[in-house]
């Protein structure tokens, strides 16, 4: 005999679990285990506030960000004090570790490129760990949910754990580089543009597709030592810089960078824009004055990409998701490219 479902958890109960997971405060610096932390755990910015987010803000110090809420199809305003932050470093380690990219002009030196990548990777790991905690709590809420809903939660939790393990492996490698200052394995492709970017970003992802339509990672894979690419868009004194970086080896990484290198320069700005919103909408921050001037067709094209993360487990983005879609969204002029990839 079937038993009636018990009441579902309330929205407030779910929000309480999410808040508890995402309000954790601890230091990710490798020396934290030695007791070298000083000061409080801070709301570390993955994109610096002063000289970074402040360059694209509206008069009330807000920028746009796409909401994680599944029913919100347009970006929402967020204050730059809260934008791009996570509680993953103590005051002294945040200040000292990232000083070269916080207080000095970006000149694409290897240590600066690495620090942009390291900060992006640490945030992604921090978020994955929180996701794992949320999923585990949801698994315990079997009451009130159908067997299909329970199965989806179980699958989501399983693959979130795998992704987290990939990032834990990467974190060890990045920590060793940070400690030894040996950047010999760092691969990068830096694009300089002549204007302050209309949106800024700090992101990291498991390599999935590239600009030629090639697929690498397939959802459902049980591998845990996958290739990772980090990505940053920052303002600089002369305009802006877009940095792709990885510490991984192998043909897949070479192929990904080759797909960028092979793009015509005049196509590259909008290819970067597609990549940003296809994969990194959760930590991309948009100039309100720029967004508000876009026509509805362009806004909808960007929003569609930003919502593409809502695909289910076992489903895949199209292999050609980064190929030209006919939308010319930005008008950047490329002034210089620095790369150690061929």
Quick overview of this protein structure:
This protein is an alpha+beta fold and 342 residues long. The protein has helices at 11-22, 91-97, 99-102, 110-139, 147-180, 251-261, 268-279, 288-293, 296-306, and strands at residues 41-45, 62-65, 76-79, 85-90, 187-193, 199-206, 228-236, 239-246, 284-286, 334-339. The protein is built from nine helices and ten strands.
Structure report:
With 342 residues, the chain is α+β, with helices and mostly antiparallel strands. It has one domain (13-339). 37% of the residues lie in helices and 18% in strands. The chain contains nine helices and ten strands. It has helices spanning 11-22, 91-97, 99-102, 110-139, 147-180, 251-261, 268-279, 288-293, 296-306, and strands at residues 41-45, 62-65, 76-79, 85-90, 187-193, 199-206, 228-236, 239-246, 284-286, 334-339. The protein has a six-stranded antiparallel sheet, sandwiched between helices. A two-stranded antiparallel ribbon has the order 1-4. Helix 4 runs antiparallel to helix 5 and helix 7 (268-279) packs across helix 9 (296-306). It is globular. It starts with 10 loop residues before the first helix and ends with a strand. 32% of the residues are buried.
